[in-house]
Amino acid sequence: KPQLANRVQTLTPSTTLAITAKAKELKEQGIDVIGLGAGEPDYNTPQNILDAALKSMNEGHTKYTPAGGLPALKKAIIDKLERDQQITYQASEILIGIGAKHVLYTLFQVLLNENDEVIIPIPYWVSYPEQVKLAGGVPVYIEGTAEQQYKITAKQIKEAITDKTRAIILNSPSNPTGMLYTKNELQEIADVCKEANIWIVSDEIYEKLIYGDAQHISIAQLSDDAKERTIIINGVSKSHSMTGWRIGYAAGNKELITAMTDLASHSTSNPVTTSQYAAIEAYNGPQDTVEEMRAAFESRLEIIFPKLASIPGFKVLKPQGAFYLLPDVSEAAKNTGYDSVDAFVEALLTEANVAVIPGSGFGAPSTIRLSYATSLDLLEAAVARIDTFVRSKW
Ligand code: PLP
Known about the structure:
This is Aminotransferase. It contains 14 helices and 12 strands. By secondary structure, it is of the alpha/beta class. It folds into 2 domains: 6-44 and 289-393, Aspartate Aminotransferase, domain 1; 63-284, Aspartate Aminotransferase, domain 2 (3-Layer(aba) Sandwich), CATH 3.40.640.10. The strands form 3 sheets. Strands 2-8-7-6-5-3-4 form a 7-stranded mixed sheet, with helices on both faces.
């Protein structure tokens, strides 16, 4: 048995992957399992983007690029930030990396010293705590309860800040909750962060997936101070259905970006060249497919939400963004004879043949996460199966 480094001793593999593997196993045995675990849009990348990628290859753009990304892609991102957020950035304030996930990883590596604290709201995206720990940092959790729409407040942040706090992570719209912070909430958070002089890591990867009259606001938009202490994280994965291309970016303080670029120059060399050309088209080309996909997610949500909410023992808030539903199912689990939501999830998979993600992986063990990035037919069938399962055992 090899002796592994201390830093990976406590690394927990993604819960999403464990349930997905089990679902795959059942499928291979010929069982008709419906998977609602997906964290990616169920559309192919739009054709104009595919065409741009192919064209770039045919033109010979198949070599290394600058470590922080192609100048033309940085320009496209700068234009996007100006257009959508009304914030002006310089090329020296942008780093393009291998998906938003690896950009975040690089950020924590350059930001954190041993035992530095990072405030992480519960429920959280699974990778935040692991990435903070891998950089030697300590996650400090504060809970956004269902009563506060799974959002944390400025007051909670203030109480959690110590002299070791370096940063707070915000994710709006959120995976897994689908909630969005309002301008007022963000303003209060920005004020607290200014007072304590801490960084704000603003993960805006679901920015384009917003429903109803909800509005996406970046905390960096609120003031010069907020802009200076915020690192915006975003990318094309969810907005342009480009999860496999692995292009994300960070926009923020020049010194941080320089350090991240230097680290990238030794760890990745550059984000995949073809993917960068594809992303230029994603940002500079027509945006109608972005809106089409958004509208499709919204119409599925409208149909599926009331059905899910009417399952006995399911308590669910209506999401305002992203493509996840996060019902609290503790009542349903208890009344159907399971002593934990994890056990309930296991039974949903093996008996009702629906794969969902247990909320324990997001720090919210009374919930489950269902993705509606799948066809309406499958969604309706899956929710009907869950409903029948719960009612038959109640
Ligand atoms: N941030 C959040 C909240 C996510 O849900 C995801 C993907 O699941 C990412 C970041 C990573 O996105 P990317 O595919 O660009 O690495």
